[in-house]
Design goal:
It contains 5 helices and 10 strands. By secondary structure, it is of the alpha+beta class. The strands form 2 sheets. Strands 1, 2, 3, 4, 5, 8, 9 and 10 form an 8-stranded mixed beta sheet that branches. Pfam families: Lectin_C (PF00059).
Length: about 210
């Protein structure tokens, strides 16, 4: 058995159920990987529709949405956008769905400026790293964002030294690392999707300015 096959086996064996199509509890020792992938694909389509609709938002609607985002705890930074740091730790898929419940998505870092803003918030909260909207669950080594594009087209990619390496030690066991976090220094790490981290949501509608 190759190392990659072994890690995939361990991941499937120890992964907790994360989709609405899996009726086992999160403490289950198996996961329907195809259901997770299907859920991600549906999410991509939904987020793209949200972004397309942003171009037709009126001034009144923008003002109303701005008030709603502020009420939800989102903070807007000029030239960066609206973000919210959730300190309650969740698995990557639950964090992703939590953001979508707010019509947002896990943060996608598009610039050094955005990385600096988010890093400062992470550091100020006393957190080492948070889930962001990148993963390679569709194909090993092909890192993409939650809206479907390659991370190489985002404008900002900075991995911690030696990463990604596709494995992480979890409960004294090596497991596949297919989801991304960013630490307080702005560096990405590949981690086990079912380990719980804090996370950052980003509001995707570019027409809602600060």
């Amino acid at each position: 058995m190759t190392r990659k096959t072994f890690l995939l086996f361990i991941t499937v064996t120890f992964a907790y159920s994360q989709t609405t199509h899996v009726h086992a509890s999160e403490n289950s020792t198996s996961v329907k990987v195809q259901d997770v992938i299907s859920d991600l694909q549906r999410s991509i389509a939904s987020l793209k529709r949200l972004e397309e609709s942003s171009f037709n938002v009126s001034t009144a609607e923008s003002s109303q949405k701005r008030e709603e985002l502020t009420r939800l705890g989102y903070i807007c930074s000029e030239d960066v956008g609206w973000h919210k740091l959730h300190t309650t730790r969740k698995t990557w898929n639950r964090a992703r769905r939590s953001c979508e419940d707010e019509d947002a998505h896990l943060a996608i870092v598009n610039s050094i400026g955005e990385a600096q803003v988010l890093s400062e918030r992470i550091k100020k909260a006393g957190i080492y790293s948070v889930f962001i909207g990148i993963h390679d669950q569709f194909e090993e080594g092909d890192w993409v964002t939650v809206v479907g594009g390659s991370i190489n087209k985002t404008g900002y990619v900075r991995w911690s030294e030696g990463l990604p390496n596709n494995y992480q030690t979890y409960n004294l066991t090596e497991v596949a690392a297919n989801c991304g976090t960013m630490n307080y220094e702005g560096a990405f790490m590949d981690v086990y999707c079912y380990k719980k981290y804090a996370y950052i949501c980003e509001y995707p509608l570019i027409s809602i300015n600060c």
